[in-house]
Amino acid sequence: MNSSKHTELANHAWSVADLLRGDYKQSDYGKVILPFTVLRRLECVLEPTREKVVETVARFAGQDIDTGHFLRRASGHSFYNKSDLTLRKIAADPQNAAKNLQIYVGAFSDNAREVLDRYEFNQQVRKLDGANLLYQVIGRFTDLDLHPDVVPNHNMGYIFEELIRRFAEQSNETAGEHFTPREVIKLMVNLLVAPDADALTVPGVVRTVMDPACGTGGMLSAADDRIKALNPDATVEVYGQELNPESWAICRSDLMIKGQDPENIRFGNSFSDDGHARRKFDYILANPPFGVEWKKVKEEVEYEHKSLGDAGRFGAGLPRINDGSLLFLQHMISKMKPVDVNGGGGSRIAIVFNGSPLFTGAAESGESNIRRWILENDWLEAIVALPDQLFYNTGISTYFWILTNRKDKDHKGKVVLLDARDQWVKMRKSLGDKRKELGDGTNGRPDHIGDITRLYAEALHVAGDPEHPLHGKVKVFWNEDFGYQRITVERPLKLRFEVTEETLAALAEAKPVAKLERSEEFVAAVRTLLGSSWTTKSEAFVALKDAVVAAGLTWPSGAPFAKAVREAVGVRDPEGEVQKVKGAPEPDTDLRDYENVPLGEDVEEYLKREVLPHVPDAWIDHTKTKIGYEIPFTRHFYVYKPPRPLTEIDAELKSLEAEIQALLGEVTE
User: Fold this and answer.
1) How many C-beta neighbours within 10 Å does residue 153 have?
2) Which positions fall inside the N6 adenine-specific DNA methyltransferase N-terminal domain (predicted)?
């Protein structure tokens, strides 16, 4: 089925909006169209076995037994409908449409009915009936052919996504929060699964796949398809969790139709209500929303972080409150299967991030500590940079992070950075912020997905071969290369001392001075020294004390007072006296500086080489040294482009001036 057919069927479903106009706000159209599309799809899937199910219901009528097993077997699916009603029959009886539709929906098995309940379907039925629109809406959907032989399961996903995109546009929501472009999913699944291709072809292989932010289930379906393409006899069990009720309902119904267990798709927030607690999976993948705050679950997340520590999901650290991306990654890492003594087991993870998780957060911040935890455990296999303008809801650059706890020996201790930012073709028509797409080799387009997949598989070889044409697109680093020591470079506080109008004003405002009973007289006594200056603190304090005593006042004692006077009359001077505390130079906070020194390098050697030639009196305060980790992806792939020659720029400007003059001449003629 081509994209024009998807659009045609989506247009048919969305044409119901013409009936709703006036009785419904535009932003509420989807609340009717989406559940009716799901209902029609369920009906079309069950139609071939509908009579068999009705016969089974009649056969067990009046018997006090659980008929669920027999009805599922009769329907051929994990769900069924016990009624002999259809949407077409209901539409043919307008007077009883609401009553019959509720009977029809109530006859579905619990797992199917729960999907419609998430849409508050009964409420919409009552509203449509009250507006005398129900039978018309039902009639419109009876003409929508969604039978599996016309619309296969894979293609049905495109139709749901198109409807959600339109719903999001009408509601001023973000479509990208609900689903990911299919070509992006295909590449992501390739990179996730490709290294296991041989293992997946083993007869009878069983694999579990989990997405903690599954949206409409596109990633789960793609992973299922990919594994079964490698081995049609493989058993793939998919699991997911979703917070948005409409997306959850579509994902659940889609997987239910495909024969997956609908109970594996949980509703709720993965952070505060883990629907798959204590479960481990072979493959875990996700495209969590970018830059979304986690304030709503702050209490639960912080409690788990503090009370469970490393025994919980968030022991490594907590990111800033306005971006929960790295919480998702920690949650996914907690779902990895352990590796056994023979090297078996283990898991692979793929997640989509924007650039923020690469470098946000200073040394020993929550983000930096999470990166450190991942790298020191040798879980990060690769990061792949994607083109910008690839997603529906953002035009910014995005990245795949690929992680595993079972790296092969060649990848041990290493991280691959792969630059695929130039692998794209321009779309004929933009969809939201999406203006670019990855080519798949069809319809005359380049095979970007295949090229990137192959380059990923050969990354170590390409990085080690300077003659390879794609050598500049791949770089390999040791885990430690992303670590650094954040050192604090101090310089001594140097002061001269003087009494000026400015220092007198500072003295009068100092709290220890202002609290004196005769503070004004104290300042007046010091004023007698106006214009005086001293090179040392001891000389200055002797003179100040003599002036105060001469005025009949007492010189206060105590360190706070002495410090306040020094700060008031002391003036920073590169040639001034070095101030000391307990015999050691006192650092000047205004001159304090910070340097990032690569992990493993001797910081004192770094100081001698990089700092002391410029400021010979500097030193490192080792008590303030912190360890940080960041991944400056773009810096590693930066290529210097020299500016154009001035003669070329001048020639271009003169050409443009001549062109403008010619145009002006035409206007004035």
Assistant:
1) 17
2) 9-141
